[in-house]
Amino acid sequence: MKLDTLDAATLKEIDSTPGDKRGLFLRCFGLKIASKDNARKKASAIAAYLRFKERAKTEEIVPSPSENGGEGLGGIRTAKRVVALTEDEALDPETIMRRMGYDPDEWELVRWKAVLNDWDVTMKLRRVLGYDHNGRPYYIDEPETHTNYQYKCELTLKPIPNAVTEKMILDILTTVEFPTVEPYKYKNTQQFLLELPIVDFHLGKRAGNMCLEIEVELYKAVIMDILGQLSTFKLIPEVIHYILGQDFFHVDGKNEDTSAGTPMKTTAPWTDIYDVGTELLLWTVEQLRPISPVELIYVPGNHDSTSSFSAANMLKHVYTKEPNVIVDAIDYPRKYRQYGITMLGHSHGRDEGKQRIKTIMQEEAPEMWGATSVREFHMGDLHHEEAREEGGITFRRMSALTMLDGWHVNKAYTARRKAQAILWDKQRGKWLTIDSNVTV
């Protein structure tokens, strides 16, 4: 719980709860506070902050003076507000923008500053370690000291013309009527999990003789090769995990750049890439679900976070009434799953660093860690296969299907193009790896 997420309704709840405030914290925040006096002090501190926050709203928006009715040329505006931030958040302009009500997908930041004020609040609260596949938070019982500092923030922004935002995509998806999906009945499945971590496809990347038609043909051939090998050995998994995202698309929108704004060369307009890609994802699910129940797990990449997020939500709505297709479309950088004695972590593996990734699994999913004896973290991003074992975890980089472009050639990256499927036995852990090598 961060103070800046609380509002006037919280203040009203505090003021309307007489006497012992421990029930208030349990009811509103899920916090168990042993001491009656401690709960009273915490409630008083939160109430004082919220009253201060209400007073600070008087300087929330100050438009730039101009002839255009309160906004500068091109819609440029200045916003000021006192915001509660941690020290790290105060260094991140995107976080400040969101706290002040501006979506970075809709507004371009011209300049900004955050000046430390004199008022802060420190509290000891349970820490949210992560979220399950239903989006529910899970906590650690050890309290964490959390300090919210007051910063006087000032932003100068201008609107991004014709911006396509995640909210717009979700609003559209909620109004679409999707066709009825016929369910399948399963029998004679065996106690193993089929994991399909096909990462870094980079659909639409301009390299060699690639075009969308060839890329689609390649992807379908790989899926059918893996399923054909399963059929040859008469293997029927109990469940299939198919990993979404992970740079499935090469670019993230009409500017044909990555999520961070790096320009890319593509084989087609981004609208064609997205249209072909979503159709290919639907085709893939329809190949998998006649075999076994399927869980689709969205893991953000660094090239296509918005495109893959919207594609994951599209699939979620298509299969919303099909109980044997579960779609985890939550926008969280790491996902964890347990199958028997095995714990699997999924991340693109770009931002955690070699040191932080060593302990993040234990911290974000401690119960799953304690219930398993085989643990692996599967990552993409580097386009080549490697594995190392450290601290009871195997860290595995997965191979990529994408073709080498000029940048990779110049850097002497010459990894083998292939996709992998991994079979996990419920009682023995990693059982079998299926390689599907790309032949050109």
Commentary on this structure:
This protein is of the alpha/beta class and about 450 residues long. Helix content is about 30%, strand content about 30%. The chain has eleven helices and 14 strands. The strands form three sheets. It has a six-stranded mixed β-sheet with strand order 7-6-5-4-13-14, with helices on one face. α8 (about 305-320) links the parallel β6 and β7 (about 325-330). α7 crosses α8. The model is unreliable at about 60-70 (pLDDT under 50).
CATH fold call of the largest domain? Purple Acid Phosphatase, chain A, domain 2
Strand content: 25-35%
Average pLDDT rating? 82
Name of the CATH homologous superfamily of the largest domain: Metallo-dependent phosphatases
Distance between the termini: 53 Å
Largest sheet geometry? 6 strands, mixed
- Total tally of structural domains: 2
What is the overall shape? Answer: globular
Q: How many β-strands, per DSSP? A: 14
Radius of gyration: 25 Å
CATH class of the largest domain: Alpha Beta
Count of alpha/pi helices: 11
Q: Unreliable stretches, pLDDT < 50, 5 or more residues? A: 58-70
Structural class: alpha/beta
State the share of residues found in helices, binned by percent.
25-40%
Based on the coordinates given, report the CATH architecture of the largest domain. 4-Layer Sandwich
**SSE order, one letter for each helix or strand:** HHHEHEEHEHEHEHEEEHHEEEHEE
